[in-house]
Design brief:
Blueprint (H helix, E strand, L loop, with lengths): L5 H4 L5 H14 L5 E2 L11 H12 L12 H15 L8 E4 L2 H12 L5 E6 L4 H8 L3 E6 L10 H7 L4 E7 L11 H11 L6 E5 L15 H4 L7 E6 L12 E4 L2 H12 L7 H12 L3 H21 L15 E5 L17 H12 L1 E2 L1 E2 L8 E5 L4 H16 L9
Helix pairs in contact: 3-11, 4-11, 5-6, 5-10, 7-8, 12-14, 13-14
Length: about 400
């Protein structure tokens, strides 16, 4: 269509959304599908948070708010950053958006000129390269490897930076791998960035509280305070508070950037829901005990999925340190034939085969710029996870090697 912009033509739809939508469509047709394609906790929003929203409605807090968010929420975010991350902001340095995703978009739209480059490690969240393109930038992927835990190496970052580089986007814990950047890892990244004062850091900390075992959460502005003046720290309530549908993200950073982000938001969505903002105040200021309950449940589910997946011949995965995803290598599956005689040529083929044969929705690794993998979200019940892994194993057992293959 002539009406569509050239910029949009380069942007791909989200594969996580696409696979989840397909699963919903098949369910509507009466097919049994276990959806493990979407990063959404299956827990209900904690009751005290929901009650705060109901109270806000009864109190009449249903009007427009400031674009950057209500004062009580920005003050709660200031306290959260101080309490959890040893970061010191003023309320004016805080902005609230319709989820962390909007804040990433606002930051890039506010700061990128055509052709500016944004560096990020892969595998990456499916939206990173597409948001960068929409903002007029050029996505620059830095490949990580299984053998180093999907952690970006400082030498690889250095090699990727050019005079056009404006941002490094860093998601830890990572979607889709669950990789967690240690203090030492971040110090190595910071050492590189000190040689490139023009490059800013976008720290995507949305999975901050979902850390397991001995892993420690750190964020760049905390580890390298000298980089705080060019770091935007983004977080939200979706994952750790089971508030995905409430759409509340928040960010803290240099005042000039925050003001620019508010300008972008003021000309797009304005503010996020007033009721959601009041709920988020309670999520940040109220009882935090639910976070440990969620984390303990996720860790148990993680261990279950890792064990079951590694029992399936042809699939393999390491134990992730954070988030709620398992990133599964399926390279050995590529080239095998389905019972219908179709060759599995790509991870997308494999994902579609699992949807059709096993009734399980997963996301192909290619959507995260990492061919030869699939991602499973373990933010579902143990029963669903057990049934899904059993069905995947049965579906894989039906695949046959091509004649002459090793």
């Amino acid at each position: 269509m002539d009406i569509l912009s050239a910029k949009l033509s380069a942007v791909k739809p989200s594969q996580t959304k696409a696979m989840t939508a397909l699963a919903a469509e098949l369910k509507a047709q009466g097919k049994s599908i276990i959806t493990l394609s979407q990063g959404e906790p299956d827990f209900a929003t904690p009751e005290h948070i929901s009650q705060a929203a109901i109270a806000a409605i009864h109190a009449g807090h249903t009007k427009y708010t400031a674009v950057a968010g209500i004062p009580a929420l920005r003050e709660a975010v200031v306290e959260k950053f101080r309490r959890d991350n040893s970061l010191n902001f003023t309320p004016e340095q805080i902005t609230v958006g319709c989820g962390a995703k909007q804040l990433l978009f606002n930051a890039l739209v506010a700061s990128l000129d055509e052709g500016d480059e944004v560096v990020f490690p892969t595998p990456c969240w499916v939206s990173y390269p597409e948001i960068i393109k929409l903002a007029g930038g050029v996505p620059i992927a830095v490949e990580t490897r299984v053998d180093n835990g999907f952690i970006m190496q400082p030498s690889d970052l250095r090699a990727a930076i050019t005079p056009r580089t404006k941002w490094l986007m860093l998601n830890s814990p990572s979607n889709p791998t669950g990789a967690v950047y240690s203090r030492e890892n971040l110090e190595g990244v910071a050492a590189v960035l000190r040689d490139f004062p023009r490059v800013w850091v976008l720290a995507d900390d949305i999975y901050e509280h979902l850390i397991y075992g001995d892993a420690e959460f750190c964020t760049m502005a905390e580890v390298a305070p000298d980089l705080a003046s060019r770091t935007l720290t983004v977080n939200g309530t979706s994952k750790s508070c089971a508030m995905t549908g409430w759409r509340v993200g928040y960010a803290g950073g240099p005042l000039e950037l925050i003001k620019a982000m508010n300008t972008v938001q003021g000309q797009s969505t304005s503010h996020t829901s007033s009721i959601s903002q009041h709920a988020a105040v309670e999520a940040l200021n109220g009882d935090q005990g639910f976070i440990k309950e969620f984390r303990d449940a996720f860790e148990k589910r993680r261990d279950l999925v890792v064990e079951l997946v590694n029992e399936i011949p042809g699939l393999s995965c390491d134990t992730p340190n954070g988030a709620f995803y398992v990133f599964i290598g399926c390279q050995e599956i590529i080239g095998r034939k389905t019972p219908a005689g179709k060759t599995i040529k790509t991870d997308m083929d494999f994902a579609m085969y699992l949807m059709e044969e096993a009734g399980v929705a997963v996301v192909p690794g290619s959507g995260f710029l990492a061919d030869g993998f699939i991602r499973i979200s373990y933010a579902s019940s143990e029963d669903d996870l057990k049934n899904a892994c059993t069905a995947i194993g049965a579906a894989v057992s039906k695949l046959t090697r091509a004649q002459g293959a090793a």
